Amino acid sequence: MDLDAFDYALLDAVQRDATTSQQNLGERVNLSAAAVNRRLKKMNSEGVILGTVARVDPVALGYTLTVITEVEVENERLDLLDEMKRAFLACPQVQQCYYVAGECDFLLIMLVKNMEQYTQLTRELFFESNNVKRFKTLVSMSNVKSELYVPVLA
Amino acid sequence: MDLDAFDYALLDAVQRDATTSQQNLGERVNLSAAAVNRRLKKMNSEGVILGTVARVDPVALGYTLTVITEVEVENERLDLLDEMKRAFLACPQVQQCYYVAGECDFLLIMLVKNMEQYTQLTRELFFESNNVKRFKTLVSMSNVKSELYVPVLA
DNA sequence: TCTGAAAATGGACCTTT
DNA sequence: AAAGGTCCATTTTCAGA
Protein backbone atom coordinates (compact mmCIF):
# COMPACT_ATOMS: atom_id res chain seq x y z
CA MET A 1 0.00 0.00 0.00
CA ASP A 2 1.34 3.41 -0.81
CA LEU A 3 0.72 6.32 1.45
CA ASP A 4 0.49 10.00 0.69
CA ALA A 5 0.99 13.13 2.76
CA PHE A 6 -2.58 12.91 4.11
CA ASP A 7 -1.99 9.39 5.33
CA TYR A 8 1.27 10.38 6.99
CA ALA A 9 -0.39 13.25 8.78
CA LEU A 10 -3.17 10.95 9.97
CA LEU A 11 -0.74 8.26 11.14
CA ASP A 12 1.20 10.83 13.08
CA ALA A 13 -1.95 12.10 14.75
CA VAL A 14 -3.56 8.79 15.67
CA GLN A 15 -0.31 7.40 17.04
CA ARG A 16 -0.29 10.28 19.52
CA ASP A 17 -3.99 10.25 20.32
CA ALA A 18 -6.45 7.88 18.76
CA THR A 19 -9.45 9.42 20.50
CA THR A 20 -9.46 12.48 18.25
CA SER A 21 -12.65 12.57 16.20
CA GLN A 22 -12.51 12.15 12.45
CA GLN A 23 -14.10 15.58 12.14
CA ASN A 24 -11.27 17.13 14.13
CA LEU A 25 -8.61 15.14 12.27
CA GLY A 26 -10.11 16.32 9.01
CA GLU A 27 -9.88 19.96 10.02
CA ARG A 28 -6.21 19.52 10.85
CA VAL A 29 -5.21 17.83 7.63
CA ASN A 30 -7.74 19.59 5.37
CA LEU A 31 -9.95 16.69 4.54
CA SER A 32 -13.62 15.93 5.17
CA ALA A 33 -14.50 13.63 8.06
CA ALA A 34 -15.71 11.04 5.56
CA ALA A 35 -12.39 11.04 3.71
CA VAL A 36 -10.57 10.61 7.02
CA ASN A 37 -12.87 7.73 7.84
CA ARG A 38 -12.17 6.03 4.52
CA ARG A 39 -8.41 6.43 4.85
CA LEU A 40 -8.26 5.15 8.41
CA LYS A 41 -10.49 2.22 7.51
CA LYS A 42 -8.22 1.33 4.60
CA MET A 43 -5.02 1.60 6.64
CA ASN A 44 -6.59 -0.62 9.26
CA SER A 45 -7.62 -3.29 6.79
CA GLU A 46 -4.29 -3.15 4.96
CA GLY A 47 -2.41 -3.65 8.22
CA VAL A 48 -0.65 -0.30 8.23
CA ILE A 49 -2.51 0.39 11.45
CA LEU A 50 -2.18 -2.74 13.56
CA GLY A 51 -4.77 -1.77 16.11
CA THR A 52 -5.82 0.80 18.64
CA VAL A 53 -5.00 0.22 22.27
CA ALA A 54 -5.14 1.94 25.62
CA ARG A 55 -1.83 2.55 27.33
CA VAL A 56 -1.89 1.73 31.00
CA ASP A 57 0.45 2.99 33.70
CA PRO A 58 2.35 -0.07 34.95
CA VAL A 59 2.79 1.47 38.41
CA ALA A 60 -0.97 1.76 38.85
CA LEU A 61 -1.14 -2.03 38.57
CA GLY A 62 1.79 -2.66 40.87
CA TYR A 63 4.41 -3.21 38.20
CA THR A 64 7.14 -1.04 39.63
CA LEU A 65 10.07 -2.90 38.16
CA THR A 66 11.25 -3.05 34.55
CA VAL A 67 13.86 -5.71 33.97
CA ILE A 68 15.88 -6.25 30.85
CA THR A 69 17.33 -9.69 30.28
CA GLU A 70 19.93 -10.80 27.79
CA VAL A 71 19.62 -14.48 27.14
CA GLU A 72 22.27 -16.67 25.58
CA VAL A 73 21.11 -20.01 24.27
CA GLU A 74 22.87 -23.33 24.36
CA ASN A 75 21.76 -24.63 20.99
CA GLU A 76 20.50 -22.61 18.02
CA ARG A 77 18.44 -25.40 16.50
CA LEU A 78 15.35 -23.83 14.96
CA ASP A 79 12.80 -25.95 16.76
CA LEU A 80 14.40 -25.16 20.09
CA LEU A 81 14.45 -21.43 19.32
CA ASP A 82 10.82 -21.54 18.26
CA GLU A 83 9.87 -23.24 21.47
CA MET A 84 11.61 -20.49 23.42
CA LYS A 85 9.93 -17.79 21.37
CA ARG A 86 6.58 -19.37 22.08
CA ALA A 87 7.26 -19.38 25.81
CA PHE A 88 8.25 -15.69 25.75
CA LEU A 89 5.21 -14.78 23.66
CA ALA A 90 2.90 -16.56 26.05
CA CYS A 91 4.31 -14.84 29.14
CA PRO A 92 2.32 -11.66 29.87
CA GLN A 93 5.19 -10.15 31.86
CA VAL A 94 7.34 -10.17 28.74
CA GLN A 95 6.47 -6.90 27.05
CA GLN A 96 9.05 -7.20 24.35
CA CYS A 97 11.29 -9.85 22.94
CA TYR A 98 13.93 -9.42 20.26
CA TYR A 99 15.96 -12.17 18.66
CA VAL A 100 19.32 -10.56 18.07
CA ALA A 101 22.55 -11.19 16.28
CA GLY A 102 25.69 -11.01 18.34
CA GLU A 103 26.88 -12.39 21.61
CA CYS A 104 23.49 -12.72 23.25
CA ASP A 105 20.53 -14.24 21.45
CA PHE A 106 17.36 -12.91 23.00
CA LEU A 107 16.73 -9.60 24.62
CA LEU A 108 13.65 -9.42 26.80
CA ILE A 109 11.98 -6.48 28.46
CA MET A 110 9.86 -7.57 31.36
CA LEU A 111 7.46 -5.89 33.71
CA VAL A 112 7.40 -7.35 37.21
CA LYS A 113 5.96 -6.39 40.57
CA ASN A 114 9.08 -7.22 42.54
CA MET A 115 12.29 -9.19 42.43
CA GLU A 116 10.61 -12.32 43.70
CA GLN A 117 8.33 -12.36 40.74
CA TYR A 118 11.32 -11.94 38.47
CA THR A 119 13.14 -14.80 40.16
CA GLN A 120 10.09 -16.96 39.71
CA LEU A 121 9.86 -16.04 36.03
CA THR A 122 13.52 -16.81 35.41
CA ARG A 123 12.83 -20.27 36.74
CA GLU A 124 9.92 -20.82 34.41
CA LEU A 125 11.42 -19.19 31.35
CA PHE A 126 15.12 -19.96 31.61
CA PHE A 127 15.89 -22.84 33.91
CA GLU A 128 13.07 -25.08 32.79
CA SER A 129 13.82 -24.52 29.12
CA ASN A 130 17.09 -26.48 29.26
CA ASN A 131 18.38 -24.44 26.37
CA VAL A 132 19.61 -21.35 28.19
CA LYS A 133 23.36 -21.22 28.58
CA ARG A 134 23.29 -18.08 30.68
CA PHE A 135 21.44 -14.84 31.09
CA LYS A 136 22.32 -11.36 32.27
CA THR A 137 19.87 -9.15 34.10
CA LEU A 138 19.73 -5.36 33.87
CA VAL A 139 17.39 -3.46 36.14
CA SER A 140 15.86 -0.23 34.89
CA MET A 141 16.16 2.63 37.34
CA SER A 142 14.14 4.97 35.19
CA ASN A 143 12.02 4.47 32.11
CA VAL A 144 13.13 7.55 30.27
CA LYS A 145 10.94 6.76 27.30
CA SER A 146 8.66 3.92 26.46
CA GLU A 147 6.40 4.08 23.47
CA LEU A 148 5.82 2.32 20.17
CA TYR A 149 5.46 5.43 18.05
CA VAL A 150 6.78 4.97 14.51
CA PRO A 151 8.25 8.16 13.01
CA VAL A 152 6.34 9.42 10.00
CA LEU A 153 8.71 12.15 8.99
CA ALA A 154 12.44 11.77 8.30
CA MET B 1 -6.83 5.04 43.11
CA ASP B 2 -7.95 1.55 43.92
CA LEU B 3 -9.27 -0.74 41.29
CA ASP B 4 -11.73 -3.61 41.51
CA ALA B 5 -12.34 -6.68 39.39
CA PHE B 6 -14.47 -4.66 36.93
CA ASP B 7 -11.67 -2.18 36.40
CA TYR B 8 -9.20 -4.97 35.85
CA ALA B 9 -11.41 -6.60 33.27
CA LEU B 10 -11.86 -3.28 31.50
CA LEU B 11 -8.13 -2.53 31.53
CA ASP B 12 -7.42 -5.92 30.08
CA ALA B 13 -9.95 -5.39 27.31
CA VAL B 14 -9.01 -1.85 26.28
CA GLN B 15 -5.32 -2.67 26.26
CA ARG B 16 -6.05 -5.30 23.62
CA ASP B 17 -8.56 -3.29 21.63
CA ALA B 18 -9.63 0.19 22.51
CA THR B 19 -12.18 0.43 19.70
CA THR B 20 -14.66 -1.83 21.46
CA SER B 21 -17.82 0.09 22.30
CA GLN B 22 -18.74 0.69 25.92
CA GLN B 23 -21.96 -1.19 25.25
CA ASN B 24 -20.00 -4.25 24.15
CA LEU B 25 -17.51 -3.93 27.00
CA GLY B 26 -20.42 -3.76 29.42
CA GLU B 27 -21.89 -6.99 28.14
CA ARG B 28 -18.57 -8.76 28.60
CA VAL B 29 -17.94 -7.62 32.15
CA ASN B 30 -21.60 -7.47 33.22
CA LEU B 31 -21.99 -3.76 33.62
CA SER B 32 -24.16 -1.15 31.95
CA ALA B 33 -22.62 0.97 29.20
CA ALA B 34 -22.95 4.03 31.45
CA ALA B 35 -21.01 2.35 34.25
CA VAL B 36 -18.29 1.39 31.81
CA ASN B 37 -18.18 4.98 30.61
CA ARG B 38 -17.79 6.35 34.14
CA ARG B 39 -15.06 3.87 35.03
CA LEU B 40 -13.04 4.48 31.89
CA LYS B 41 -13.40 8.22 32.29
CA LYS B 42 -12.19 8.02 35.87
CA MET B 43 -9.23 5.81 35.01
CA ASN B 44 -8.29 8.24 32.27
CA SER B 45 -8.43 11.28 34.52
CA GLU B 46 -6.61 9.50 37.34
CA GLY B 47 -3.80 8.52 35.01
CA VAL B 48 -4.30 4.78 35.23
CA ILE B 49 -5.00 4.92 31.51
CA LEU B 50 -2.29 7.09 30.00
CA GLY B 51 -3.91 7.46 26.63
CA THR B 52 -5.25 5.68 23.61
CA VAL B 53 -3.06 5.30 20.58
CA ALA B 54 -2.97 3.59 17.21
CA ARG B 55 -0.23 1.03 16.70
CA VAL B 56 1.45 1.34 13.33
CA ASP B 57 3.42 -1.31 11.48
CA PRO B 58 7.00 0.01 11.29
CA VAL B 59 7.66 -1.87 8.04
CA ALA B 60 4.80 -0.05 6.33
CA LEU B 61 6.69 3.18 6.93
CA GLY B 62 10.04 1.80 5.85
CA TYR B 63 11.43 1.08 9.31
CA THR B 64 12.78 -2.38 8.66
CA LEU B 65 15.52 -2.34 11.27
CA THR B 66 15.24 -2.48 15.03
CA VAL B 67 18.50 -1.70 16.75
CA ILE B 68 19.26 -2.06 20.43
CA THR B 69 22.08 0.02 21.82
CA GLU B 70 23.81 -0.25 25.16
CA VAL B 71 25.43 3.03 26.07
CA GLU B 72 28.12 3.49 28.67
CA VAL B 73 28.66 7.03 29.85
CA GLU B 74 31.89 8.76 30.74
CA ASN B 75 30.64 10.81 33.64
CA GLU B 76 27.53 10.19 35.77
CA ARG B 77 27.02 13.80 36.78
CA LEU B 78 23.29 14.41 36.99
CA ASP B 79 23.18 17.39 34.68
CA LEU B 80 25.08 15.47 32.02
CA LEU B 81 22.76 12.47 32.34
CA ASP B 82 19.71 14.73 32.10
CA GLU B 83 21.06 16.29 28.97
CA MET B 84 21.48 12.85 27.44
CA LYS B 85 18.00 11.80 28.49
CA ARG B 86 16.61 14.90 26.85
CA ALA B 87 18.41 14.11 23.60
CA PHE B 88 17.06 10.54 23.60
CA LEU B 89 13.55 11.72 24.40
CA ALA B 90 13.62 14.21 21.57
CA CYS B 91 14.77 11.68 18.98
CA PRO B 92 11.73 10.11 17.28
CA GLN B 93 13.72 7.03 16.24
CA VAL B 94 14.30 6.19 19.89
CA GLN B 95 11.24 4.19 20.82
CA GLN B 96 12.42 3.28 24.25
CA CYS B 97 15.12 4.35 26.63
CA TYR B 98 15.95 2.82 29.99
CA TYR B 99 18.47 4.10 32.46
CA VAL B 100 19.90 0.96 34.00
CA ALA B 101 22.09 -0.13 36.85
CA GLY B 102 25.05 -2.27 35.97
CA GLU B 103 27.83 -2.17 33.46
CA CYS B 104 26.02 -0.17 30.82
CA ASP B 105 24.04 2.94 31.66
CA PHE B 106 21.41 3.45 28.99
CA LEU B 107 19.63 0.91 26.89
CA LEU B 108 17.96 2.24 23.79
CA ILE B 109 15.63 0.60 21.34
CA MET B 110 15.65 2.36 18.03
CA LEU B 111 13.69 2.08 14.82
CA VAL B 112 15.67 2.92 11.70
CA LYS B 113 15.19 2.58 7.96
CA ASN B 114 18.68 1.29 7.28
CA MET B 115 22.17 1.11 8.69
CA GLU B 116 23.09 4.49 7.28
CA GLN B 117 20.37 6.12 9.27
CA TYR B 118 21.61 4.34 12.36
CA THR B 119 25.17 5.48 11.73
CA GLN B 120 23.92 9.02 11.33
CA LEU B 121 21.98 8.79 14.59
CA THR B 122 24.95 7.43 16.52
CA ARG B 123 26.83 10.51 15.40
CA GLU B 124 24.15 12.85 16.65
CA LEU B 125 23.32 11.01 19.83
CA PHE B 126 26.63 9.55 20.95
CA PHE B 127 29.62 11.22 19.38
CA GLU B 128 28.37 14.77 19.72
CA SER B 129 27.37 14.31 23.33
CA ASN B 130 30.99 14.05 24.52
CA ASN B 131 29.81 11.96 27.45
CA VAL B 132 29.63 8.54 25.82
CA LYS B 133 32.52 6.29 26.73
CA ARG B 134 31.42 3.51 24.40
CA PHE B 135 28.34 1.85 23.04
CA LYS B 136 27.46 -1.61 21.88
CA THR B 137 25.00 -2.27 19.07
CA LEU B 138 22.70 -5.27 18.82
CA VAL B 139 20.65 -5.78 15.69
CA SER B 140 17.25 -7.42 15.99
CA MET B 141 16.70 -10.18 13.48
CA SER B 142 13.13 -10.74 14.54
CA ASN B 143 10.77 -8.81 16.75
CA VAL B 144 9.24 -11.77 18.51
CA LYS B 145 7.03 -9.55 20.62
CA SER B 146 6.61 -5.86 20.94
CA GLU B 147 3.80 -4.40 22.94
CA LEU B 148 3.22 -2.27 26.01
CA TYR B 149 0.49 -4.39 27.52
CA VAL B 150 0.53 -4.36 31.32
CA PRO B 151 -0.65 -7.65 32.86
CA VAL B 152 -3.81 -7.31 34.90
CA LEU B 153 -3.88 -10.77 36.36
CA ALA B 154 -1.09 -12.45 38.34
C1' DT C 1 -29.84 2.17 36.12
C1' DC C 2 -32.51 4.49 32.68
C1' DT C 3 -33.41 8.11 29.37
C1' DG C 4 -32.24 11.35 26.02
C1' DA C 5 -29.48 14.81 23.75
C1' DA C 6 -25.26 15.68 21.38
C1' DA C 7 -21.48 13.80 18.91
C1' DA C 8 -19.21 10.45 16.06
C1' DT C 9 -19.16 6.90 12.71
C1' DG C 10 -19.76 5.04 8.41
C1' DG C 11 -22.63 4.21 4.25
C1' DA C 12 -25.03 6.11 -0.04
C1' DC C 13 -24.70 9.04 -3.62
C1' DC C 14 -22.96 12.59 -6.55
C1' DT C 15 -19.01 15.22 -8.51
C1' DT C 16 -14.27 15.93 -10.02
C1' DT C 17 -9.89 14.51 -12.06
C1' DA D 1 -11.46 4.00 -11.74
C1' DA D 2 -10.09 6.58 -7.74
C1' DA D 3 -10.81 9.80 -4.36
C1' DG D 4 -13.25 13.93 -2.42
C1' DG D 5 -17.43 16.15 -0.64
C1' DT D 6 -22.26 16.37 1.30
C1' DC D 7 -26.02 14.37 3.40
C1' DC D 8 -28.20 11.13 6.36
C1' DA D 9 -29.13 7.05 9.27
C1' DT D 10 -27.26 4.47 12.89
C1' DT D 11 -24.40 3.94 16.77
C1' DT D 12 -21.92 5.67 20.56
C1' DT D 13 -20.90 8.62 24.23
C1' DC D 14 -21.90 10.83 28.29
C1' DA D 15 -24.49 13.74 31.54
C1' DG D 16 -28.69 14.45 34.34
C1' DA D 17 -32.77 12.54 36.40
Can you put this structure into words, describing what you see?
The structure is a homodimer of 154-residue chains. Chain A is α+β, with helices and mostly antiparallel strands and 154 residues long. The first copy, chain A, has two domains: 5-45, Arc Repressor Mutant, subunit A (Orthogonal Bundle); 58-139, Lrp/AsnC effector binding domain/regulation of amino acid metabolism (RAM) domain (Alpha-Beta Plaits, 2-Layer Sandwich). Helix content of chain A is 38%, strand content 31%. A four-stranded antiparallel beta sheet of chain A has the order 3-4-2-5, covered by helices on one side. Chain A is elongated and about 55 Å long. The model of chain A has no long low-confidence stretch (mean pLDDT 96). Chains A and B meet through helix 1, strand 1, helix 4, strand 3 and strand 4 of A and helix 1, strand 1, helix 4, strand 3 and strand 4 of B. Strand 3 (94-101) of chain A pairs antiparallel with strand 5 of chain B. The first copy, chain A, binds a DNA duplex (17 and 17 nucleotides) through residues 21-23, 31-35, 37-39, 41.
